[in-house]
Design brief:
Blueprint lengths: L25 H20 L3 E2 L5 E3 H5 L4 H5 L3 E3 L5 E4 L4 H11 L7 E10 L11 E10 L4 H17 L6 E6 H11 L3 H12 L3 H10 L4 H9 L4 E2 L2 H11 L3 H20 L5 E4 L12 E6 L8 E5 L13 E7 H8 L15 E4 L4 H12 L4 E3 L6 H10 L4 E4 L6 E4 L8 E2 L5 H23 L2
Parallel strand pairs: 1-5, 7-9, 13-14, 13-15
Antiparallel strand pairs: 2-4, 3-4, 5-6, 6-12, 7-10, 8-9, 10-11, 11-12, 15-16, 16-17
Helix pairs in contact: 1-5, 5-11, 6-11, 7-8, 10-11
């Protein structure tokens, strides 16, 4: 009997995208670009200038300055000359490189804002793909509490501008925890177990650590109370934290937080802030405050940041710095309160015009666009009912048929759809009416997008 071997060819990946990345198009792409533009506009009005950094860097530039977790998530690849490169995993390290190597003589403080994609080799999940977008700020050259407060206040204003009505900033201070570790003088293994318990916010792990680790009573009390130093009662938390402090670094952290909160009160945004001195989320370079923004309906941070006074000095002259980054996908999820996005659809034009290449028609279209309307030309020489049907498929509320001797205007929101002759005298008033109607529709669509 003849044996026939059938070789199965691997399924072609042509036309597909790898796991963890996505295409965005039509209205969904427009929503992302619009939000990005809104946030950058807010940042620019606070004095932040744009910066664009490369999508990839030498791997050593990124890995040597990030946490172990960040190092493990780098997307690495070889250059033609054999150099190891990596896609940027955040925006802070590239900006720090730029400032440390090229802008160290610029007047301080320096303020930068950015928007772009970053990459981490992680398991894709809701709110984070392997490629995701960050929109953020960096304030470099000032160690003053006012600098930290400015970044926090600007984050509050940015989230409000993005349409997030309810959120809170959870504010911590790395110096407080670092001072506590210094006072405890633990072995490397014990310190790793403690840091893991605090980072996971695991009371059972912390209780197990306290049972198995011999510590003086005052140190035990400071460690046991650390998870309880959180909430909106800022004055009470700071007072308790000061009483528990074991050394000068811990006291200095409390003084710093109190000064920052005083400035936030002056900005009028303190109501959005809660404290959590067990918040030790660290990308490997934070040295002072750290914070994250949380919103209802979203089970992860939508923005985060902190102070990193030692990072720029690894590239050049030392400079203090603080920054924040908003995750674009996560902000959009928060704006929708965790609901799935609507099916993508093209952005509807305000007007469809069959111009028949007539100069008056093209002049009207140009005027409509200059007034802010989205005006699309019909390229198939449609007229009458065919033009109206086509305009409706695009979601346009109006059409103009300029293929006849006297142009005809159609209001597609009118169930009857009767054409109205359009005279030269009537075009200015029609244009004004279309602009007003467009503004109303866009306000409605913006509101719907935030639900």
């Amino acid at each position: 009997m003849e044996v026939v071997t059938i070789e199965t060819m691997p399924q072609s990946s042509a036309g597909q995208v790898p796991a963890g990345v996505a295409d965005y198009f039509w209205g969904e792409a427009y929503e992302r670009r619009t939000l990005e533009a809104t946030l950058l506009d807010v940042f620019r009005h606070w004095g932040y200038s744009d910066v664009v950094t490369p999508v990839f860097e030498y791997a050593d530039t990124l890995s040597a300055r990030g946490s172990r977790e960040l190092q493990s998530e780098l997307c690495r690849f070889l250059d033609r000359d054999g150099s190891m490169l990596a896609l940027r995993a955040d925006m802070t390290i590239p900006v720090a490189r730029l400032v440390g190597t090229r802008l160290h003589d610029a007047p301080a403080p320096q303020r930068f804002c950015y928007a772009g994609s970053v990459f981490r080799d992680v398991e894709p999940r809701a709110g984070q793909q392997r490629e995701f977008w960050q929109v953020g700020i960096e304030l470099l050259g000032s160690a003053a509490p006012e600098a930290d407060a400015e970044v926090l206040a600007l984050t509050v204003h940015a989230l409000k501008a993005a349409g997030i009505a309810h959120f809170r900033l959870v504010l911590g201070q790395m110096q407080y925890f670092d001072g506590l570790l210094r006072a405890l003088q633990l072995t490397p293994d014990a310190q790793a177990r403690l840091t893991q318990a605090i980072d996971r916010n695991s009371e059972p792990e912390l209780e197990a650590f306290l049972r198995t680790t011999r510590l003086p009573r005052r140190q035990q009390r400071a460690l046991a109370e650390l998870p309880r130093l959180s909430g909106a009662a800022i004055d009470d938390i700071l007072q308790r934290a000061a009483r528990l402090a074991l050394n000068q670094p811990m006291l200095a952290a409390i003084v710093n937080l109190r000064a920052i909160c005083d400035v936030l009160a002056a900005f009028g945004v303190l109501e959005h802030v809660t404290l959590d001195l067990s918040e030790i989320h660290n990308l490997g370079y934070y040295t002072g405050i750290t914070f994250e923004a949380l919103a209802p309906g979203v089970g992860f941070r939508i923005a985060s940041g902190g102070r990193y006074d030692n990072l720029i000095g690894t590239f050049g002259a030392p400079q203090p710095a603080v920054g924040a980054a908003l995750g674009l996908e996560r902000v959009l999820l928060a704006r929708r309160r965790g609901a799935a996005p609507p099916p993508p659809r093209p952005l509807p034009p305000d007007l469809v015009v069959a111009a028949a290449n007539q100069p008056p028609a093209l002049a009207f279209v140009a005027a409509a666009r200059a007034a802010g309307l989205i005006a699309a030309l019909d390229l198939a020489h449609r007229s009458g009912d065919a033009l109206c049907t086509y305009a409706r498929t695009l979601g346009a509320p109006a059409a103009i048929d300029w293929t006849t001797t006297t142009p005809c205007y159609y209001d597609l929101d009118d169930a009857g759809v009767h054409g109205t002759a359009l005279t030269p005298e009537a075009t200015p008033s029609l244009l004004a009416r279309l602009v007003a109607q467009s503004a109303g529709r866009r306000t409605h669509l913006h509101t719907e997008g935030q639900r």
